[in-house]
Amino acid sequence: MSLPVRFSAEAASELNAAAAWYDVQQPGLGETFLEAVDATLGYLSDWPGSGAPVPEVPAGLDVRRAPVARFPYHLPYVVLESHLRILAVAHDRRRPRYWAPRVIE
């Protein structure tokens, strides 16, 4: 059974900003980035437990992260009963775990 995916407002904003940045770097690259994110989300929807567990989060929360193929980004997310909540569209080498406070929102 596939779980629906829902983005936090911050994650949706980060997704749009990253895609726009890539499009400035090379026209069409933003769309390629969005397709890579969509492929990751499709996989996570079918296999929610496949992301790597994120240590040091509040007990009882299934927080995981999945890489975005071909791009230095990952998607931290929480597995809930009814859906996956994407917490961030985070660059691999910038501001580690800045999104952690979003876990409890």
Structure explained in plain terms:
The protein is of the alpha+beta class and 105 residues long. The chain has one domain (5-104): RelE-like (YaeB-like fold), CATH 3.30.2310.20. Helices cover 33% and strands 22% of the residues. It contains two helices and six strands; from the N terminus they run βααβββββ. The protein has helices at 9-25, 29-46, and strands at 5-7, 52-53, 63-68, 73-79, 84-86, 90-91. Strands 1, 2, 3, 4, 5 and 6 form a six-stranded mixed beta sheet that branches. β3 and β4 (73-79) form a beta hairpin. α1 packs antiparallel against α2. The model has no long low-confidence stretch (mean pLDDT 91).
Write the layout of secondary structure elements.
Layout: E1 5-7, H1 9-25, H2 29-46, E2 52-53, E3 63-68, E4 73-79, E5 84-86, E6 90-91
Structure summary:
The protein has 2 helices and 6 strands, in the order E-H-H-E-E-E-E-E. The protein has 105 residues and is an alpha+beta fold. The protein has a single domain (5-104), classed as RelE-like (YaeB-like fold).
Structural class: alpha+beta
* Gyration radius, rounded: 13 Å
How many structurally independent domains?
1
CATH architecture: 2-Layer Sandwich
Specify the helix fraction band. 25-40%
Helical stretch tally: 2
How far the N terminus sits from the C terminus, by CA atoms, comes to 26 Å
Please state the overall shape, judged from the principal axes of the Cα atoms.
globular
Stated plainly, the CATH topology is called YaeB-like fold
Series of secondary-structure elements, N-terminal to C-terminal? EHHEEEEE
Q: Average pLDDT across residues?
A: 91
The CATH class, by name, is: Alpha Beta
- Content of β-strand: 15-25%
Main sheet properties: 6 strands, mixed
Query: What would you give as the CATH superfamily?
Result: RelE-like
Low-confidence stretches are none
User: Number of DSSP strands?
Assistant: 6
